[in-house]
Design goal:
about 130 residues, alpha+beta, 2 domains, 4 helices, elongated
Length: about 130
């Protein structure tokens, strides 16, 4: 199980929960509730943001070896680098936008162009 990825997802949920708790906090200020009720929203919001932000620092990494090549990257941000067996960076590819399925390939070594395209396709299809 990928605990870093799980921690990052839980961190995002915690931050979302703290954002959703802001509305009741504002209502408690509008209706001039006592400090006890206002703190009952404020303290969990601060704790959720703090713990959620710490969990966001966990970055899952993807590291595989294939046919003399090494692929490293971040599956959540979809940012990968490909190295050959001499640790020379052959290419990098990443998702151009989080809202669209546009991918950008930067191939540094044109001799390995075909294998770079095959590695990219294999990585894209790996999640399906």
């Amino acid at each position: 199980m990928n605990y870093k990825k799980l921690g990052q997802i839980i961190g995002k949920i915690m931050i979302l929960e703290s954002i959703l708790m802001i509305a009741p906090l504002i209502v408690s200020f509008i209706y001039q509730e006592s400090l006890k009720y206002q703190l009952s929203f404020l303290i969990p919001i601060v704790l959720l943001v703090g713990i959620g932000s710490l969990l966001q620092l966990l970055k899952p990494k993807y590291n595989i070896r294939f046919n003399g090549y090494r692929i490293e990257g971040d599956p959540i941000g979809f940012d990968y680098q490909v190295y050959d067996n001499q640790d020379k960076k052959v290419m990098s590819f990443y998702k151009e936008s989080i809202f669209r399925k546009n991918y950008c390939l930067k191939i540094n070594d044109e001799m390995n162009e075909e294998i770079c395209v095959l590695i990219t396709i294999a990585t894209l299809m790996g999640g399906k």
